[in-house]
Amino acid sequence: MERQIHSSLKVLLVSDLDRAKKFYRDVLGCEVTDWWVIRDGFTGLGIKLLQANDPKDVRPNPPSKGSGTGFDLYCYVENWKALDEIYYEFKSKGAPIAIEPWVDENNGPWKEFAVKDLDGYCIAFGGTDETQV
User: What's the total number of domains in the chain?
Assistant: First the structure.
């Protein structure tokens, strides 16, 4: 069967749309339009930000059982060099780091880190590295 789905986008309700767009553009390096927040095209990080009717409607995911952090988006990164570059870029621009980079030797090994946006949504970045396998 031919591929039918090209990509998917996460929809996030935000408390202040203009402020959120500025954060995603200036801190996370995304292309921001009237419709989308994207980084590395639509097959990379893709989000549709929508203004919440009420700040109480903004609800990041709670942590899963046994976890201290809830994830709202997870982005796969091709290798650890790219992962480290993204981490240092975000950190240098003042992104709130929710999880510092760490390596799970039992799964991959897998390396990941996470940031939080202004509304507390947690965006994780992780992947394996062919040079580490």
Answer: 1
Task: Name the nearest CA neighbour of 67 among 122, 129, 5.
Answer: 122
101 contacts 113 by C-beta, under 8 angstroms: yes
Amino acid, res. 123: I
Q: How many of the other CB atoms lie within 10 Å of CB of 11?
A: 8
Report the 10 Å Cβ neighbour count for 40: 14
The predicted model scores a pTM of 0.92
Question: Does residue 3 lie within any of the structural domains?
Answer: no
Q: Report which secondary-structure segment, H or E, holds 127.
A: strand 122-127
In a domain, 4, yes or no: no
Low-confidence ranges of the chain (pLDDT < 70): 131-133
The backbone region for 94, taken as left when phi is positive above 0, alpha when psi lies in -120 to 50, beta otherwise, is left
Which DSSP category does 29 fall into?
A: -
